[in-house]
Amino acid sequence: MRGEMLSVRYIDWSYWLELSGQTRLPTEAAARIRAGRQAFGVPNDGALALANDLAHGLRRPPLIVVSAHPEGGDVVLEGHVRLTAMALAAEALPNEIETLRGVSPGMTRWSNY
After folding, report:
1. Which of 3, 24, 26, 100 would bridge with 10, disulfide CB 3.0–4.6 Å?
2. pLDDT at 68 over 80
3. What is this structure's pTM?
4. Residue ranges per domain, the chain?
5. CB 104 within 8 A of CB 16
């Protein structure tokens, strides 16, 4: 569901930490982008253009998310820009969003969630 998708965290990498204000949350990154913030001087044009496309009904491949727990704590493995665009276009997204999700207790070594 859309609300669950927007609670997926970014990977623990410097760019995504900077863009999200250290929260790793796409909703925070979207707010910062709307406020004109950039991470390390990288323009947000790609995420903004994709958000516009999503708002007009364009669909993209599903995100790949992973978790150490079946009940949640998802981290995006592939699709960070798409996740950012989804947060930017959240109100226009359908309620159901397809994702590919993997669960393994070993993810705690990788995801830092």
Report:
1. 24
2. yes
3. 0.92
4. 2-111
5. no
